[in-house]
Amino acid sequence: MPLFFIPITAFIVWLLALLPNFSFFKLDFILSDQLIGAYIFISYLILAFSWALSGPITAAALSFLFSMICLYLFLLSKEPAFLLQLIFYAASYLIAVIYLLKVQKKNNNKQILQEKLTEDIRWTRGENEKKKMLQAALEKKIDRFMDLRKFSEELKGIKDIETAARKIVKEIHGFLGRADECALYLINENQQQLFLVASQMSDRGILKEKQGSIFDQWVMKKAQGLLIDDASNDFRFPPEKSSTARPVRSVCATPMMSGNKVLGVLRVSADEPKAFSTEDMRLLDIFSSLGSISLKNLLLYAKMEEMAVHDGLTGLYLNRYFRQVYAEERRKADHGRSPFALIMMDIDHFKSCNDDYGHAAGDIVLKNIAKIIASCLGPADFAARYGGEEFIAFLSNKNEKQAMTVAESIRAKIEAHLFIFRRIRVCVTASFGVVSYPEALGTEEELLKIADQKLYHAKLNGRNRVCGNL
After folding, report:
1. What DSSP character marks residue 190?
2. Catalytic residue IDs
3. Is residue 62 part of a domain?
4. For a tag site, which of 13, 96, 379, 412 has the least CB within 10 Å?
5. pLDDT tier at 14 (50, 70, 90 boundaries)?
């Protein structure tokens, strides 16, 4: 039983003991002074017990009830003692109320403090979560930075363009796991068209857009990045024009720049919409920057290497490089006893062409004749500009008869080719000297001298002819 029942029960008993002393019909109160004192004393005891056992709330309630009873008794009996008791009970009631207010205020302050502490704890937990997330993000960025640094170092050690491109594509596909395909295109400077260098697809398929999709063309022309959440809803790329070999929805692409010049395009795409974010775009830009530096250096190296072995005007091998390859092929022929032939050729009256029509016309003649020579050679054959207007060709696995046929084909095509300089039709011819091994024996230089002698005989015999041992 709760403790506050005890003083309340005592009050009820006290009230029941007091009620018989009322004369309700006469509105009078019949009680001796001794009994009044006893009743008042008992009320004090009840209040004291209520404070001790039940607290201020019960004490305040009982003080209020005692006050009302004393007020009623005072009005009936006009006894000053009841008025004094009324003041006492009222004071007890006020004390209880004031105490309750203080307790309530204290409890309110305590609750406010508790709520503030709870809020502080929540805020601290939130800050800790943010710090953990920030720490995790920083750790991820550090790991990514270390991976990029490692990638950059590995890229520096690669010496050819295709290997570097495959490395770039593989790394990007690994970093952006949501990508279904990744492709790297470079620009053909002569045709200003994209051509595929490397690609990787999640389903191990083969990329069919060898010259780039509509997205790659857009990036190349605009020289700026492209991020598409859903290509089917992008007005810049109508579905009928952006149809690809697979249903591309998300696209993230960036140009590979060297200064203000576009070297190529780096693109990742996915079949699902909203696969890439701006963070992925920034990462792709970093790969593009690193890759551009490496590919630019490799392209310059390849160009310098090509310039070291190819004639800048005709595109054929230089004499120096021809001799290196010729020496290697001669050693192979000696080892396998396989035949080969040399065709030395010289343009007839080339000096007159230069004098009459200018050096620009002479350059045109050299370029076109070089193209004719290259068109008549097989995949294992090669030709070089021997010097000035002289050319030489190496024919693998061909005897002298076959070499004479090739030389005659070149001669006929040159003779049939029509040049127009200053609105004048000009025909150009050439003379040829042919030697074959092992029909003719000798060192590398001796075979070259024999071919030169045959060329000299062709000149003496009227030019525009092929001269050999047959």
Report:
1. T
2. 389
3. yes
4. 379
5. low
Angstrom distance (rounded) from CA 348 to CA 353: 9
Q: Does residue 152 sit in the same domain as residue 27?
A: yes
- As a whole number of angstroms, the distance between CA 464 and CA 345 comes to 10
Which residue segment(s) compose the domain that 386 sits in?
A: 317-467
pLDDT at residue 175 in the model: 81
DSSP 212: -
The predicted model gives 252-270 an average pLDDT of: 89
Here the tokens at position 340 are 């080969």
Q: What pTM was computed for the model?
A: 0.53
* Tens of pLDDT, residues 27-70: 444 444 555 556 666 666 666 666 666 666 676 777 777 777 77
Phi, psi of 312 (to 5 degrees): -65, -25
pLDDT band at 26 (very low <50, low <70, confident <90, very high): very low
Same domain flag for 394 and 431:
yes
Question: What span, in angstroms and rounded, lies between the C-alpha atoms of 212 and 195?
Answer: 7
Share of the chain above pLDDT 90, in %: 27
**Residue 283's domain is classified under what CATH number?**
3.30.450.40
CATH number for the domain harbouring residue 331: 3.30.70.270
Give mean pLDDT, residues 390-403: 94
Within this chain, do residues 125 and 147 fall inside the same structural domain, yes or no? Answer: yes
What's the domain count of the chain? 3
Q: CA-to-CA distance for 228 and 226, rounded, in angstroms?
A: 7
- One domain for residues 325 and 277: no
Work out the angle between the directed axes of helices 33-49 and 56-77 (0-180°, nearest 10): 160
Residue 311: inside a domain: no
In a domain, 309, yes or no: no
| Tokens 């069919």, located at residue | 208
Beta strands in 189-316 (DSSP E): 193-201, 226-228, 250-258, 261-270
Residue 339 near residue 398, CB atoms below 8 Å: yes
Q: Helix or strand or coil: residue 393?
A: strand
Question: Between 350-357 and 359-376, two packed helices, what is the crossing angle to 10 degrees?
Answer: 140
